[in-house]
Design a protein that fits this description.
The structure holds two protein chains of two kinds. Chain A contains three helices and five strands; from the N terminus they run E-E-E-E-H-H-H-E. By secondary structure, chain A is an alpha+beta fold. Chain A has a three-stranded antiparallel β-sheet with strand order 2-3-4, with helices on one face. Chain A has a two-stranded antiparallel sheet with strand order 1-5. Chain A starts with a strand and ends with a strand. Chain B is an alpha+beta fold. Chain B is 25% helix and 30% strand. In chain B, strands 9, 10, 11, 12, 13, 14, 17, 18 and 19 form a nine-stranded mixed β-sheet that branches. An eight-stranded mixed β-sheet of chain B has the order 1-2-3-8-7-6-5-4, covered by helices on one side. The longest helix of chain B is centred in the middle third of the chain and has 19 residues. Classes of the chains: A alpha+beta, B alpha+beta. The interface between A and B is medium-sized, with 16 and 21 residues.
């Protein structure tokens, strides 16, 4: 699955995490540490499996477990209109 | 029109009715904003929803028209604010509302929208001076902002405002004085100041009184953000992670969503920057009867951000 940040979504760093604003809908969303890293890698053009592999290596975690978590995150972001395919 | 002049949020306001909770300006000044509490017919072309706070029947709705914005509250009162946020005009109010009620409305939530239209960013927070810095006391309506501010005022702190604070957009963020008055429930006044009968009503139908405080004209750098949850008990301060502070700031800025893209982005940027740069805490203030020593305790707890 290849997703990208929806147009009109801006991010800001708050502490070690990112927060998002959808300018079109006026809704906002806070990401946790892994979610923030995901969003940064998404902005660099990565697809879900490659992002999961990168994050798994950085956090010494199972790529499959990370990919499963990222799928859940993408669904939440999609429901908020913050990512599109 | 007969104009009564006041200073509020660093602006000179000309009102067509007296506003009992603001001290009148003693010298003539050219107004930055006008307030009319004489109802006027709705301007034509209304109907396009520009903002709706949420999807409930209690939501505040703002409609766009050719001259500006119509703000409609759930109690059927409505106000018009011009495009640049310089003029507030009453359109309709329920018959039982007094001038005092309407002024409290107009200079509360309606003024907040007008000031945002002017390009300002405001927090639903009181602000007090501790040492030479501003400390913001934020929280939802009824969480005890004004009372907590008043507890510190009784201990000699200078007050910047008790409910709505304008913050500068560029770091280091500064808090600007709003109005030299506290709006307090009668029981808070009696616990902190004595006989509530000595203080004027905020408005005849509200069980709140006005306590005038010394006016401060200068802004101050914000050293800490304190969030109230409406609970009092053994005084306690718990540090919040930046993102937790950001969530609370956003929830207080607008209820469920933000208005148009330019205003949304400005609010979002300032809230993110504040949460990233300013130390934030959840505060449990002491009971009113234990107000003595609260200031010293708070200054000690906040020693590092106040340095």
């Amino acid at each position: 699955m290849r997703v990208k940040a929806a147009p009109d979504v801006v991010s800001r760093r708050v502490g070690e995490e990112l927060v998002l604003l959808d300018l079109r809908r006026g809704t906002y969303f806070g990401l946790d540490e892994i979610g923030s890293r995901f969003w940064s890698l998404l902005g660099e053009g990565g697809d879900l499996p490659s992002i999961a592999t990168t994050i798994a290596a950085e956090y010494d975690a199972s790529p499959l477990a990370i990919e499963r978590d990222l799928h859940a995150l993408v669904e939440a972001l999609r429901a908020e209109g913050l990512v599109v395919e | 029109m007969t104009a009564f002049l006041y200073r509020i949020h660093q602006r000179v306001l000309a009102s067509d009715r007296a506003v009992s909770f603001l001290p009148p300006l003693e010298s003539a000044a050219s107004p930055d904003m006008t307030l009319s509490l004489t109802p006027r017919a709705e301007p034509p072309g209304s109907g396009t929803v520009w903002y709706r706070s949420d999807d409930s029947a209690e939501a505040t709705a703002i409609e766009r028209n050719a001259e500006g914005f119509i703000i409609r509250f759930a109690d059927r009162s409505s106000f018009h604010v011009d495009e640049g946020g310089r003029s507030i005009q009453l359109l309709h109010a329920p018959p039982a509302y007094t001038d005092g009620d309407l002024a409290a409305y107009a200079l509360g939530p309606v003024l907040a929208i007008a000031l945002h239209l002017q390009g300002s960013v405001l927090l639903h927070a009181g602000a007090v001076m501790l040492r030479d810095k501003a400390v913001l006391i934020a929280g939802a309506g009824g969480s005890g902002k004004s009372t907590t501010v008043a507890m510190l005022e009784r201990e000699g702190c200078t007050i910047l405002g008790d409910d709505l604070t304008e913050v500068s957009a560029v770091p280091p963020h500064r808090a600007l004085p709003s109005s030299p008055a506290l709006r307090l429930w009668t029981d808070s006044i009696e616990a902190l100041y004595g006989d509530a009968g000595a203080f004027p009503d905020r408005a005849p139908s509200w069980n709140k009184k006005i306590v005038r405080v010394e006016e401060r004209e200068a802004s101050a750098v914000i050293a800490a953000l304190l969030f109230l949850d409406g609970v009092r008990g053994a005084a306690r301060l718990e540090r919040l992670a930046p993102k937790a502070a950001w969530s609370r700031l956003m929830a207080d800025a607008f209820t469920a969503r933000l208005p148009d893209p330019a205003m949304s982005r400005r609010i979002f940027d300032v809230m993110a920057s504040l949460a990233d740069r300013v130390a934030a805490y959840a505060l449990t203030p002491p009971p009113l009867e234990d107000a003595s020593g609260f200031r010293a305790w708070l200054e000690e707890q906040l020693a590092e951000p106040l340095r």
